[in-house]
Amino acid sequence: MTRTILRGRVLSFLRAPQGIEDSESFLYLEDGAVTMEDGRILAVGEFEAADRSDAIVIDHRPNLILPGFIDLHLHYVQSQILASYAGSLLEWLNTYTFIAEQKFAQQGHADAVAVEFFDTLISNGTTTAVAYCSSHPRSVDAYFAEAQRRNMLVVGGKVMMDRNAPEALCDTAQTGYDDTKALIARWHGRGRAHYAISPRFAITSTPEQLEMSRALVAEHPECYVQTHLGENDAEIAFSMELYPEAKDYTGIYEDYGLLGPKTLLGHCIHLNHRETAVLAETGSVAVFCPTSNLFLGSGLFDLDRLSKAGTRIGLATDIGGGTSFSMLRTMDEGFKIQQLRGHRWNPLATFHQSTRGNAEALGLVDKIGTVAPGSDADLIVLDARATPAMRMRMATVETLVEELFLLQTMGDDRAIAEVYVAGAKAKSTLGGL
Questions:
Q1: Which positions ≥6 away from 87 have C-beta within 8 Å?
Q2: Do the bridges between strand 193-199 and strand 154-157 make them parallel or antiparallel, or are there none, so unpaired?
Q3: pTM, whole model, 2 decimals?
Q4: How much is the pLDDT for 86?
Q5: What element of type H or E holds 123?
Q6: Is the pLDDT at 348 greater than 90, yes or no?
Q7: Helix or strand (DSSP H, E) at 277
Q8: Phi first, then psi: what are they for 202, rounded to 5°?
């Protein structure tokens, strides 16, 4: 195989930064070389010391080379309902979401949406996504097949929902189990695919379906679990009406054995102290979805409180309640929410979370989220001079931290100069797959 060397300024986190001055939390090379072969990173170091014999050198200076962004919670089947006007979560679900998801029963629809969905992810520098599909198995097949065609590491699963949704979207406890079982057998571990057992949320699952979800988790401990928690006051109240014996909303999933280190819980805005402690004790991941939390008026995620309690954290766009596929825009909105919370979320921490932090949340930091020998060569090249306004601001930038903050505050898909998936160019070759 041909070795390829990417030359540029290299940034990769070694651990979570303890503050804005924590320069030991990351590797930074002013003139670095990332050597790739057969989809993996062979070596990382100073360019002058790199073995360049028989290697193709691609010069990305003066841009930054980082691990690809990782998005821990989004709905690919909602890609066509971004910017749908609604007042709150449940109104938005009933007015737009459930209608859009019914289209995935149509032949060819899932395949067409999957192509555009992955094109948009790549354009925005996201190389790994954790996605909800619809309740139709064909939507899952389309999602994983398209990811496999691009050699992307993704996580996903069919939503299980057997009540409080249109009949055309509902499965049953048994068919949800059967479909999920078959999809796990078909996709989990195939190429770079990982399956997520996906009861949508407590409102749309009967106790029988959550019991079936418990069985699936016991039978497939290698799979992830994804669902929603504590997003909206009306959602919480309705969930407690449906599960009156539960201690609280988190207690519903706790009672059915759905919490653990491989569980990703979207939102987690409105959690009491007991719930926060349970998440920390079980190692479950609270996934912060800033743009959707703001768009739907759901609330302000308390990152500081959850982190201090020992809760594991993730970050995500939550397309299509979220308003941008860009993790840069997501970081920016997340920063603003924390400002309102009186918590300064510095740019080292936000970039760590979008790369290594989210990889740690998935338990995949040995494969993705870092620029390190042995890791999969999923990389992005960031251009902090991508727009006239950014170029004007960069004229006064003096430090790496200032540059990162500029990128997350002013950047979008235009700041993604190139994307590499398993060592292959992905953004500049869009449409040529």
A1: 297
A2: parallel
A3: 0.97
A4: 84
A5: helix 109-123
A6: yes
A7: helix 273-282
A8: -55, -35
